[in-house]
Amino acid sequence: PYYVDMNQNLFLQASLHSSDQNLTVFVDTCVASPNSSDFRTLVYELSKSGCASDSTYSLYPSPRSDIARFGFNAFSFVNRFPSVFLRCELLVCRYHDFPSRCYQGCVSRFRRNADS
């Protein structure tokens, strides 16, 4: 466990360990839950499809393509939950494959009105 104060800035890093030097990593979706084994019942969305859902969530520059850096302000789920657990989905793509999902950044889907 990592202990932090409320609203403290948390900085995280995800590293890809591979012998293939031609890969890049991208943070797609991150959610938080008070339960380490249940990320469906009570969750808080930090990012989805590469888009920030929380105003404090940010991606940060990385020194290498196989490292993704991001951060947000620490929070809690009402006082009855002492811990917050994260689950993040990362994508691995070929380095400099610009049409790949890793290079598209934030992808928001818009709903269309269904006319009769």
Keywords for this entry:
single chain; mainly beta; Immunoglobulin-like; four-stranded antiparallel sheet; three-stranded antiparallel sheet; 39% strand; ZP-C_dom; disulfide bond
Summarize the structure in words.
With 116 residues, this protein is mainly beta. The protein has one domain: Zona pellucida, ZP-C domain (Immunoglobulin-like). Helix content is 0%, strand content 39%. It contains no helices and seven strands. It has a four-stranded antiparallel beta sheet with strand order 4-3-2-7, with no helix packed on it. Strand 5 and strand 6 form a beta hairpin. It is elongated, with a radius of gyration of 16 Å. It starts with 8 loop residues before the first strand and ends in a 22-residue tail after the last strand. The mean pLDDT is 90.
- List the uncertain runs: none
Distance between the termini: 54 Å
Largest sheet: 4 strands, antiparallel
Which structural class is indicated by helix and strand composition? mainly beta
InterPro entries: ZP-C, ZP-C_dom, ZP_dom
Protein name: DMBT1 protein
Domain ZP: 1-109
Keywords: Disulfide bond, Signal
